[in-house]
Amino acid sequence: MIEQEDAKKVVEVIGNNLIGVSHDSNSFSKLPDNFWGYFARGHDTKGNFGVIVTYSEDGKDVDELIKMYEEWAAKHKGNDSE
Description:
Layout: H1 4-22, E1 35-43, E2 48-56, H2 59-76
Antiparallel strand pairs: 1-2
């Protein structure tokens, strides 16, 4: 189980990273008209984490991406070598 302080740290890093992205309009230049995503990876002394933020005008794009990651996670569950 993730400790309360570790969870707080992960959310803080993600939030600060996304705030930095939001303040730079160049982060959003030349985006496709209807779909974009953002990935960030981080770590603390106990483990790693990643976050994916996705936007699409077509909800099935987001659903398909989530399904893809769920399948990947199920396939690699317990495999820390990746």
